Amino acid sequence: MGCGWLGLPLAKSFLDEGYTVHGSTTSEKKLSILKKEGIQPFLISLSEEGPKGSVLHFLKDVDSIIINVPPKLRGGNRENYVEKIRGLYNAIKASSVQKIVFVSSTSVYGDIDGEVTEDTIPRPSTESGRQLLVTEDIFGNDSELQTTIVRFGGLIGPNRHPVTMLSGRTRLANGAAPINLIHLDDCINILKNIVEQGWWNEVFNAVYPDHPPKAKYYSMEAKKRGIPVPDYSKDAAQKGKKVLSGSLILVKKYRFNTSIHN
Questions:
Q1: What single-letter DSSP state applies at residue 95?
Q2: How far apart are CA 35 and CA 144, in angstroms?
Q3: Which of 23, 53, 138, 218 is the most buried (most CB within 10 A)?
Q4: 182 CB-side CA count, 13 A
């Protein structure tokens, strides 16, 4: 559900291993792109009044569904993300699907300082984080579903890196705070492992296990790209959260494949 920057290559990766894949998009123009890739395309949009489009056909004969629809709460957007996903949840309950992967974010932990594990109580400080946390519970509190929640850090990969937005900016705060990023390739591998290995009824933090300070990391990445280096205010205190992927690394023995320094 959601064939965008992450969902489309994820779908193609499943196809490469012989799976039949349904993929949703909100764009009519993208239907032909999905079909060309071998994905069974469905035009679906989620709204607070319920899903619009062929959601029942999308869910038919499906073993597992990966929900990859982030909140649109930046800028002037003020959608009720919880109700949008609740409508999808109701459609899933009316279908035969029982295995759910819900793609969430480390933003549910808010502004906690220090190390964060899956046992840390979330304290979201943004509207996006708050709505994601409530939505996690819609699926996670349903004992009839096998739901796994993945809290990704900041996503990086082809044509996507935070340094491009930070380049040239001045007097940025929290330069000593640790970064929490993950590459697209590891996102795909983790989601595939959940489905293929049967890692159900779990909560996973998914962040690359290297957390250099923001100022040092983004300066280095800017220099690699030949773009202006972001300027951070001088603050000695290392505040901010360091998100640990303990359940993936220590319990599931997952090995991250793609460095955030590539």
A1: S
A2: 33
A3: 23
A4: 27
How far, CA to CA in Å, does 6 sit from each of 66, 148, 160, 186?
11, 17, 11, 11
How many CB atoms sit inside 10 A of residue 181's CB? 21
Going by their DSSP bridges, the two strands 241-243 and 146-152 should be labelled as unpaired
Q: Which helix (H) or strand (E) holds 100?
A: strand 99-105
Q: Which two tokens stand for residue 169?
A: 């900016």
Neighbours of 112 (CB within 10 A): 16
The model carries a pTM of 0.95
Structure-token pair, residue 88: 């999808």
Token pair for 167 = 């380049």
pLDDT tens per residue across span 138-188: 999 999 999 999 999 999 999 999 999 999 999 998 899 999 999 999 999
Amino acid at the residue 53: G
Report the DSSP beta bridge partners of residue 44.
53
Amino acid in position 113: D
Instruction: Tell me the helix, strand and coil percentages in the chain, rounded to 5.
Output: 35, 20, 45
